[in-house]
Amino acid sequence: MNRTTHGEIARLRRTNPELFSSPLIAQIRTWALWLGFIAALAYGLWWVDANPMRIVNGLNKLGLLVGLMIPPHPGDGFWSYVHAMLETLGMAFLGTVIAAVLAVPLGFLGAKNIMPNWLFHFGLRRIYDGFRGIDGLVWALIFVSAVGLGPFAGVLAIAVGDLMIFAKLFAEAIENVETKQVEGVRAAGGNDTHVMRLGVFPQVLPVMMSHVLYFFESNVRSATILGIVGAGGIGLALSDRMRINNWQEVAFIILMILVTVAVIDNISRSIRARLIDAAPQN
Amino acid sequence: MTTMGHSEASFAAGRPQRLVDFEQRFAEERRHKRLWTFVHLVLFAIALAGSVAVSDFNLVGLMNGLPKAWNYIVGTLPKLSLETLGADLSDWYWGLRFWLRLLVETILMGFVGTVLGGLIALLLCFPASRNLVENTGIYFLARRSLEFLRTVPELVFALIFVFAFGLGPFAGVLAIAVHTAGSLGKLFAEVNENVDPRPIEGVRAAGGNWPMLMRLGVVPQALPNYASYLLLRFEINVRGASALGIVGAGGIGQELYVAIRQFEYTDISAIMLLLIATTSIIDITCETIRHRLIGQDMQAGH
């Protein structure tokens, strides 16, 4: 049985060689790609100075730190951490809401079916995309310089960081609107406002809400670290505790972040699931 | 004749009744919905008021703050005039060579971090797929560790690694790798859970052991999706790497931090524009490759 199969394979290989090997150019291209990839990786590792000695030393130190972290303990700052956590949640919530509200008009401007001018629409979308390149932490740094230390800078950083992404997502949602309902409202004698309110809005709202909730989740995560550059919240407490080498409290704060993020994720996931159920099925 | 008369009579009498029923139900549903909308609005208002209170957000602050922020952003833009454009530009980008070097470092950090994280994710994703492991203990352990890796913020890992491994891009690469392992591991596991079980059964029937099942039954099906997620993560990581310099973990972020702290206004806009250009190019390139990968996938009939 085995032998006949092998014999058959050998025969097929002889009769149709092209089925068993890719063309030479494709082979060369694959090899070149792999070589380039490995060369880039090796160069990168060399650049960041990743030698084994350093890794071993670092891991030793890391083990020491983890030893210092156990057991996690809040010290006497438990309630101040709770307050800082609430501040973080507030920053994330407010920043998300502001960004979402401001993004609605921008989304309509960027939608192909609302603004048919190709150049305008294309340029605006590139601007929306470009702003995504700036990390939220960089915005936080800038707003701390501009409006001073504190959670207000964090709110602005989150709002500005998300505004352009929301604008893009909203524009896509508006472009994907089903035209049948719009035509239906128009056929029943609705004017432009009616078309927006009854034809477009009910289709777009659940999608927008779902995006907003998703970004609220991710903003809670990023708001936890904005404090490191002075924008308030739990990150400030965290970087302070690290600076004074109080690792037990550091571990406690990290655990607190993990728990909060998990709780928020679960709540928002269940709301999103409900929203998607309620959304009109296309 | 009589039957018809009878049905006509019941029709005439029944329609208003049905309409009344319908209207009653409609009104009830509407009341119900309005009540829930109202409850949600109240909850939203409470959350909003709470956040406003806790983050000292106030309209006076906003009114004072927004013009300040705007002035700041306008202040970072250099004065360019048409006559001396060349000189102005070279003045604005006086540190171009140095910045480009740091930009390359940032991209390399993103790249190496993504590859290392991807390797760890590839190792962890198989035990974290429900359809591939029998032992629920292993599954649970793999899932929880992935969750831990991705929930701790990248910057916190970077801070800790800067303590352990010293300042510089190496700590940044490790932080990116650890975070990437967590998020990619979860996505890979989701891909694995959606593979066609028949090739796996085929390999098992031919006597393959567990690593062979993964290598021959799962990986060939999941590979295009892995690659697509990997590219997506690379885009995100280059952006993240630009921020890691702020805590001393290498890359262009360090320079940006210094510029912002020392109020070198025009440097800020110069570096930010460089960053935007770089990330845009990477985004567009990765998107093209991703579309091609997924296109091939569809041609292959998956």
Automatic annotation (TrEMBL), chain A:
<feature type="transmembrane region" description="Helical">
    <location>
        <begin position="250"/>
        <end position="267"/>
    </location>
</feature>
<feature type="domain" description="ABC transmembrane type-1">
    <location>
        <begin position="85"/>
        <end position="268"/>
    </location>
</feature>
<keyword id="KW-0813">Transport</keyword>
<keyword id="KW-0472">Membrane</keyword>
<keyword id="KW-0812">Transmembrane</keyword>
<dbReference type="Pfam" id="PF00528">
    <property type="entry name" value="BPD_transp_1"/>
</dbReference>
<feature type="transmembrane region" description="Helical">
    <location>
        <begin position="31"/>
        <end position="48"/>
    </location>
</feature>
<keyword id="KW-1133">Transmembrane helix</keyword>
<comment type="similarity">
    <text>Belongs to the binding-protein-dependent transport system permease family.</text>
</comment>
<feature type="transmembrane region" description="Helical">
    <location>
        <begin position="92"/>
        <end position="115"/>
    </location>
</feature>
<dbReference type="InterPro" id="IPR035906">
    <property type="entry name" value="MetI-like_sf"/>
</dbReference>
<dbReference type="InterPro" id="IPR005769">
    <property type="entry name" value="PhnE/PtxC"/>
</dbReference>
<feature type="transmembrane region" description="Helical">
    <location>
        <begin position="136"/>
        <end position="160"/>
    </location>
</feature>
<protein>
    <submittedName>
        <fullName>Phosphonate ABC transporter, permease protein PhnE</fullName>
    </submittedName>
</protein>
<feature type="transmembrane region" description="Helical">
    <location>
        <begin position="223"/>
        <end position="238"/>
    </location>
</feature>
<dbReference type="InterPro" id="IPR000515">
    <property type="entry name" value="MetI-like"/>
</dbReference>
